[in-house]
């Protein structure tokens, strides 16, 4: 990474507002090799550049959907100013940043994904006028484009405000002027908190936590039912994820020679080539690591004879993620005890998926899957029945641990801020997408089970769309039944 210049001052407004002209536009790195910029060089860099404005741009594919979403938001909060930030870059270490990912609320309402962006809905008549506030092109007169650490010659060209208007179907304005505007604003205001400290500081005397939480909850619940664009994006994410799982099976011999990291890297390659990223940290858990629900260290050995629990999902360029799990025999075939446990989880998942249908209670699929797992645990003599007693006391949870699924979308655990009565205690509707993912986990140090069970963890997870007449398994491109998994793996390795 080149390190000649990297200013401490960003080219966006801070909580205190943008710099004055008297202040330095660019501050040098303490140990940079260039002591400064000569007047001659500064003048030279101002001219001789071609016009790169992009004209005749088409709106983004989801522009009609984002407009409808903003209309629903406007109708819910008439007469109130609504502020939805994208967020800012976060420092990873010293002067390097994490890759930026826009807030879900902002991306859902705009389709834009650039840092420092802010969507503002200003009350107007019976509705609102929406404006997207963004950083404009880097300034060539003051040298920002080549001297600022976030200038275009350092991090790449960004869209002009005119280009953004064409892409997102919204008036666009300079975000560096927004904080001052918000400080002067009057009337009721709500802001989505937690993403932009500067914007929140400008509104500190105008908002309340309770009112802002109502905005966050509304935007979370708005995503419970997916539109056709979203369902299409989720299917794209799942299809890429299926190919990522195939990639992993083909290189299991290389993973055995190295570690779980080889599996992580293999899947990540598919995610980056076909999508934006992975939707969450990939769980590449081999052997007893499969009993750790969120094993993301991925630094353990991969051994033939063990199981590999791979829980991973590709995130699309529009930020919709898949979330799929398969538990695979590293050597290609399940042992007798592995198959016994795997088949129990498969039967539980079958029961759970069958319970996903419009009009069903959200909890039904969880209850159906847990009943099957409890029945097996009683049958195997691992817990004393009857099954009703086990379920009432939750005794199966020693080995099942987690709930059987969650909503899926732009967050892997989507709609998390929704009210309990509309989510967990709610009713399934067509267009909802959720995971069904029962599991059994027998810890390596669990002395309450026979030794042959210890260190075996199994989870099977699929992404299920609620349809008008039942459900559709978006991830049925991956086999689930134990014999089908073995045949699938053999065909890929062959």
From TrEMBL:
Its cofactor is Mn(2+). InterPro entries: Aminopep_P_N, Creatin/AminoP/Spt16_N, Creatinase/aminopeptidase-like, Pept_M24, Peptidase_M24B_aminopep-P_CS, X-Pro_dipept-like. Its EC number is 3.4.11.9. It is an enzyme of class 3 (hydrolase). Keywords: Aminopeptidase, Hydrolase, Manganese, Metal-binding, Protease. Residues 60-200 form the Aminopeptidase P N-terminal domain. It catalyses: Release of any N-terminal amino acid, including proline, that is linked to proline, even from a dipeptide or tripeptide. Residues 1-36 are annotated as: Disordered. GO terms for molecular function: aminopeptidase activity. It comes from the Bacteria. It holds the Pfam family Peptidase_M24. PANTHER family: XAA-PRO AMINOPEPTIDASE 3. Belongs to the peptidase M24B family. This is Xaa-Pro aminopeptidase. The gene is pepPI.
């Amino acid at each position: 990474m080149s390190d000649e210049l990297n200013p401490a001052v960003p080219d966006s407004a801070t909580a205190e507002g943008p710099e004055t002209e008297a202040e330095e536009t660019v501050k040098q790195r303490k140990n940079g090799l260039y002591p400064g910029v000569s007047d001659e060089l500064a003048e030279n860099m101002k001219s001789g550049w071609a016009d790169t404005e992009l004209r005749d741009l088409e709106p983004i594919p989801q522009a009609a959907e984002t407009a409808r979403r903003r209309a629903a938001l406007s109708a819910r909060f008439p007469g109130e100013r609504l502020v939805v930030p994208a967020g800012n870059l976060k420092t990873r270490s010293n002067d390097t940043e994490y890759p930026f990912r826009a807030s879900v609320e902002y991306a859902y309402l705009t389709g834009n994904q650039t840092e420092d962006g802010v969507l503002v809905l200003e009350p107007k008549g019976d509705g609102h006028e929406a404006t997207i506030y963004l950083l404009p092109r880097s300034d060539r007169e003051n040298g920002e484009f080549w001297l600022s650490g976030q200038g275009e010659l350092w991090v790449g060209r960004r869209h002009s405000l005119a280009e953004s208007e064409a892409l997102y179907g919204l008036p666009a304005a300079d975000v560096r002027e927004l904080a001052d505007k918000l400080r002067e604003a009057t009337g009721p205001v709500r802001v989505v908190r937690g993403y932009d400290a500067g914007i929140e500081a400008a509104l500190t005397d105008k908002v309340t936590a309770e009112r802002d939480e109502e905005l966050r909850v509304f935007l979370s619940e708005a995503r419970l039912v997916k539109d056709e664009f979203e369902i299409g994006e989720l299917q794209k994410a799942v299809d890429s994820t299926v190919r990522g799982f195939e990639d992993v099976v083909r290189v299991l011999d290389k993973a055995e020679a190295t570690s779980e990291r080889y599996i992580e890297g293999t899947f990540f390659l598919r995610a980056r080539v076909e999508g934006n990223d992975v939707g969450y940290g990939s769980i590449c858990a081999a052997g007893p690591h499969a009993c750790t629900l969120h094993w993301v260290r991925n630094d353990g050995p991969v051994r033939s004879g063990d199981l590999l629990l791979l829980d991973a999902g590709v995130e699309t360029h529009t930020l919709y993620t898949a979330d799929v799990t398969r538990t695979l025999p590293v050597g290609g075939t399940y042992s007798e005890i592995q198959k016994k446990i795997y088949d129990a989880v498969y039967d539980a998942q079958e029961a759970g998926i069958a319970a996903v249908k419009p009009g069903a209670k959200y909890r039904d699929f969880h209850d159906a899957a847990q009943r099957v797992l409890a029945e097996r645990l009683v049958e195997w003599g691992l817990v004393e029945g009857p099954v009703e007693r086990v379920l009432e006391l939750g005794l199966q949870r020693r080995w099942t641990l987690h709930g059987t699924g969650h909503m899926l979308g732009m967050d892997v655990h989507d709609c998390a801020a929704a009210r309990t009565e509309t989510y967990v205690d709610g009713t399934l509707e067509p267009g909802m997408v959720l995971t069904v993912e029962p599991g059994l986990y027998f810890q390596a140090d669990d002395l309450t089970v026979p030794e042959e069970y210890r260190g075996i963890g199994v989870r099977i997870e699929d992404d299920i769309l609620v349809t008008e007449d039942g459900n559709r398994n978006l991830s049925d491109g991956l086999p689930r039944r134990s014999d089908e998994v073995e045949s699938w793996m053999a065909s890929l390795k062959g």
